[in-house]
Design brief:
Helices cover 56% and strands 0% of the residues. With 340 residues, the chain is mainly α. It binds protoporphyrin IX containing FE (HEM).
């Protein structure tokens, strides 16, 4: 009988033939087992798993561990894999663009803060040092300076988008209000940052801005005093502007952006006004009748300008359901062009 020598990796996973165990002279089967232990292929797989994929497995375990505690997958899905309405277009990227520029301002700001000195005597020279001597200093300063203007432009465009698409309406009013605070804070960032180079232009421009603030009604003079940090412009004014510019206002903006995004994810985004919302699946007029109206009357009722023929239009956020005030319209004469 010919001696069968198993070649590693060549042997197919077949059931051992009778007599094979005796043939290799040690009583073991040719796949390296004595019958009840793991097969050779299983052993190889185990070794591979322990060596080749060791790093991958460790990374997976770590991410699983973290995910179980912070629900990263849930947050990721809610933020980036959420469903968006039909007709969503490039205008909807404006909010994210503002967020991107804000992050860029935060990063470049940290680098500038490493070299900037907020002192009346040294501020200007530290800015010159950043521009002329620090490696890539002029570039980083340019990014921060132009980024500030870009952020203002983008934030106004984003606000215009939400206004013209009617996204400020119920139930998103709170997000609009948060947005208004964000735009004010962004302008405060512009104002406080402008003084920091402490050259002639920034000094006098800030004095003008401060005087304008002081002319505001009721709170104006107090606000101007607070910003000036006293009755006159002084070294303390610069420190105050610096603290506001790099700690207080960015912190507020960061927190408000988080609340803003939370509401965007919770409420979803508004469809463009030219997209007609479909009738919600399974909705019947009976589901849309306000409490207290008998079903019989409901079928006769005019909803959103349509007679009660079972055809009910609902705005995409359900805001235009008839209310107690609109009930009266149901009893009045049919509107122009409406079949009674
Ligand atoms: C730092 C400033 C801001 C950031 C980072 C920001 C970010 C965002 C993002 C990422 C979205 C979702 C995507 C989109 O619609 O673009 C959004 C939606 C929204 N934003 Fe802003 N936003 C800011 C300022 C504002 C301002 C100034 C307003 C208005 C006064 C505003 C009002 C809204 C509203 C109402 C929505 C909901 C849009 C919808 O439902 O379609 N946001 N924002």
């Amino acid at each position: 009988m010919a001696l069968k020598i198993p070649i590693p990796g060549r042997k197919k996973e077949t059931a051992p033939e009778p007599g094979d165990g005796a043939a290799n002279g040690n009583g073991a089967s040719p796949n390296g087992t004595n019958g009840d232990g793991p097969t050779r292929a299983e052993k190889v797989a185990k070794v591979k798993e322990a060596t080749v994929h060791h790093g991958t497995a460790a990374a997976k375990n770590t991410t699983d561990w973290l995910d179980e505690r912070v629900n990263g997958t849930g947050i990721y899905t809610a933020m980036l894999s959420r469903k968006v309405p039909k007709g969503t277009n490039w205008f909807y990227t404006l909010g994210s663009s503002v967020m991107f520029i804000f992050s860029m301002q935060a990063i470049t700001g940290v680098f500038l803060a490493m070299y900037y000195t907020p002192s009346a005597t040294e501020a200007y020279s530290s800015i010159s040092h950043i521009t002329n001597e620090v490696f890539l200093g002029e570039f980083v300063r340019g990014l921060h300076k132009w980024g500030a203007s870009l952020m203002i432009i983008l934030i106004f465009l984003h606000m215009a988008r939400t206004f013209f698409f009617g996204a400020y309406k119920y139930p998103r009013e709170l997000n609009w209000v948060i947005g208004v605070v964000l735009i004010v804070l962004t302008m405060v960032m512009g104002l406080t940052g402008y003084l920091l180079p402490f050259d002639q232009r920034s000094f006098w421009a800030t004095i003008v801005a401060n005087n304008i603030t002081a002319s505001g009604p009721v709170l104006g003079p107090y606000l101007a005093d607070f910003l000036r940090a006293g009755p006159d412009f002084s070294a303390t004014t610069l420190s105050r502007f610096y603290a506001l510019h790099m700690l207080v206002v960015p912190g507020l903006i960061g927190g408000l952006i988080a609340a803003h995004l939370f509401l965007v994810v919770k409420l979803g985004t508004t469809a463009p006004p030219w997209i007609k919302a479909p009738r919600p699946k399974g909705s019947r007029p009976s589901e849309l009748v306000p409490a207290g109206v008998p079903m019989v009357d409901a079928t006769e009722m005019s909803l959103n300008g349509h007679s009660g023929n079972g055809h009910v239009e609902v705005s995409e956020n359900g805001a235009s359901l008839p209310t107690a005030e609109t009930d009266g319209a149901a009893e009045g004469p049919p509107s122009e062009g409406e079949a009674s």
